[in-house]
């Protein structure tokens, strides 16, 4: 009898805990709904008080939620302030209208490269793009989409795995032929060589150049401008030596390497760090030609 009583008591406790858990969830959902109502009301008041407002049209897609599997655009009205960026507008829309709105961002200083977007038909960094710099930003709609030629995971988030694979394919790390003899001795580089590769070191792996490239869109094996630029950064570094440079040239002069570039300059135009990507690709082409010249 004592065993049966204990089992009944355990069942009763479980039911009580389950009921309590359901009640807690309902209360939390109620608080969240109230909070969202408050934020929307706050947004309406801020828009009424704002001197200017902007309208953003944001791409939406969520394959895991019923009714949201089909791509669409949602429109949000946001109060405008001086110095406002596209990322600021997205954060405001997410925080005040729809908490499910999904996009990547981190440093907000154009360093992490995580918030590359397709804004008004051009690849841009959300945190770097000033609303005021967009043509007719007041009274017109700003269209924000995920990077083209990339698989969309959700809303403005794209799958970057293939881009990272291409970057890794060029072995993007410093690998000298010889190390200094002294344990604390530096690997010296002259100023002229440093200036030569300086711009190539500024890549933040945002993927904007790859997204803008028509060749990359049609050739999934093409290394792409970002990866080739990274190869340039090391191949042109005098400290690595001729043996390592030869290995890098072998990587980038393959069928889907530098020779696939058609010199359209689209990658250079959209690079948020102003890296002369097309110029670097052409210089590597010249190096590849010289590398294969035979005199006999």
Terminal CA distance: 102 Å
CATH architecture label name of the largest domain: Orthogonal Bundle
Give the rounded overall mean pLDDT: 88
Question: Helical percent range?
Answer: 40-55%
Oligomer: single chain
In angstroms, what is the radius of gyration? 27 Å
The number of helical elements comes to: 10
Number of strands: 7
Shape: extended
**Quick one: CATH superfamily of the largest domain?**
Alpha-helical ferredoxin
Largest sheet: 5 strands, mixed
Strand order of the largest sheet: 2-1-5-3-4
How would you describe this protein?
The chain has ten helices and seven strands. The chain is of the alpha+beta class. The protein folds into two domains: 53-157, Roll (Ubiquitin-like (UB roll)); 160-292, Orthogonal Bundle (Fumarate Reductase Iron-sulfur Protein, Chain B, domain 2), CATH 1.10.1060.10. Strand 6 and strand 7 (157-158) form a beta hairpin. The longest helix is centred in the N-terminal third of the chain and has 48 residues, at 2-49. The relative contact order is 0.09.
What's the gist of this structure?
With 296 residues, the chain is α+β, with helices and mostly antiparallel strands. The protein has helices spanning 2-49, 86-96, 161-169, 191-197, 208-212, 214-218, 225-235, 242-252, 266-270, 277-292, and strands at 53-60, 72-79, 116-119, 122-125, 141-145, 152-154, 157-158.
Blueprint (SSEs and pairs):
Blueprint: H1 2-49, E1 53-60, E2 72-79, H2 86-96, E3 116-119, E4 122-125, E5 141-145, E6 152-154, E7 157-158, H3 161-169, H4 191-197, H5 208-212, H6 214-218, H7 225-235, H8 242-252, H9 266-270, H10 277-292
Parallel strand pairs: 1-5
Antiparallel strand pairs: 1-2, 3-4, 3-5, 6-7
Helix pairs in contact: 3-7, 7-8, 7-10, 8-10
């Amino acid at each position: 009898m004592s065993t049966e009583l204990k089992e009944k008591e355990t069942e009763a406790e479980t039911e009580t805990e389950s009921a309590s858990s359901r009640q807690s969830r309902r209360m939390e959902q109620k608080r969240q709904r109230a909070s969202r109502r408050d934020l929307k009301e706050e947004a309406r008041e801020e828009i009424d008080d704002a001197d200017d407002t902007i309208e953003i049209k944001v791409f939406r897609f969520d394959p895991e939620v019923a009714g949201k599997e089909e791509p669409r655009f949602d429109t949000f009205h946001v109060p405008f302030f001086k110095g406002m960026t596209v990322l600021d507008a997205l954060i405001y829309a997410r925080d005040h209208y729809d908490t499910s709105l999904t996009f990547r961002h981190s440093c907000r200083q154009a360093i992490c490269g995580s918030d590359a977007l397709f804004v008004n038909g051009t690849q841009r960094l959300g945190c770097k793009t000033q609303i005021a710099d967009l043509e007719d930003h007041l009274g017109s709609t700003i269209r924000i989409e995920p990077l083209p030629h990339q698989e969309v995971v959700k809303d403005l988030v794209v799958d970057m795995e293939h881009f990272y694979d291409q970057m890794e394919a060029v072995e993007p790390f410093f690998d000298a032929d010889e190390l200094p003899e002294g344990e604390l001795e530096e690997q010296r580089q002259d100023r002229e060589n440093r200036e030569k590769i300086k711009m190539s070191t500024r890549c933040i792996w945002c993927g904007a150049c790859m997204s803008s490239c028509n060749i990359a869109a049609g050739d999934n094996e093409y290394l792409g401008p970002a990866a080739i630029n990274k190869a340039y950064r090391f191949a042109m570094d005098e400290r690595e030596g001729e043996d390592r440079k030869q290995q890098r040239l072998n990587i980038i002069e393959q069928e889907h390497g530098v020779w696939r570039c058609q010199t359209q300059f689209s990658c250079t135009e959209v690079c948020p760090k102003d890296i002369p990507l097309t110029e670097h690709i052409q210089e590597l082409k010249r190096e590849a030609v010289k590398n294969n010249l035979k005199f006999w």
